[in-house]
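User: My collaborator sent over this chain with a note saying "see what the structure looks like." That's all I know about it. Can you take a look?
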Amino acid sequence: MTTQRIIGLTGGIATGKSTVTTYLTQRYQLPIFDADIFVRQAIAKMQNNHHIDFFLGD
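Assistant: Without extra context I'll predict from the sequence alone. Here is the result:
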């Protein structure tokens, strides 16, 4: 029986996170959750809602 593990990958700008993620995805077919994409989508929703509130009020 195999044990499922979660790998967290962090690091500063230009430290190779995307390179490692690409390797793991291609070599081991691992599913990836990219927090940057999730955060960008969440911020975009908040910004869109803010613009609606600004023009329409409460």
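A starting point for your reply to your collaborator: DSSP finds two helices and no strands in the chain.
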